[in-house]
Amino acid sequence: MSLDPTRRSNGGRPKGDPEAVRRATIGVRVSANEYATLRSKAAQMHMTPEQWLREAALARRLPSPPVAAINREQYAELARLAANLNQLAHLANEGRPVTVANRLLERVAAETRRLRLALLGIDGDSDDR
Known about the structure:
Blueprint: H1 32-44, H2 49-59, H3 69-93, H4 102-120
Helix pairs in contact: 1-2, 3-4
């Protein structure tokens, strides 16, 4: 840029932030019905379909990734265990006597540890606890 006050600028639009310049293009094929829906949704927001898609994709929170089947099984087992423990805690909180054998408590603690490690993908038989 020249600092000469006698020189005129070329006019036109001022340069924007180079970091904000959109250089990448993503091509998405849609059916005629999908395109009509996109145009309608964009028009309701006074946007172009491209602007609407960009805003929708960047502003929305995506659903959580699917949980692996092994984790679903382990989670269900952990939920059953937690429900049983919750029933015992509820009885104790009501002031009712709760008797649990030490062997059962040790088994529950071991199973809880095993399930926690399984959900983390760590072999429960290793010494990496």
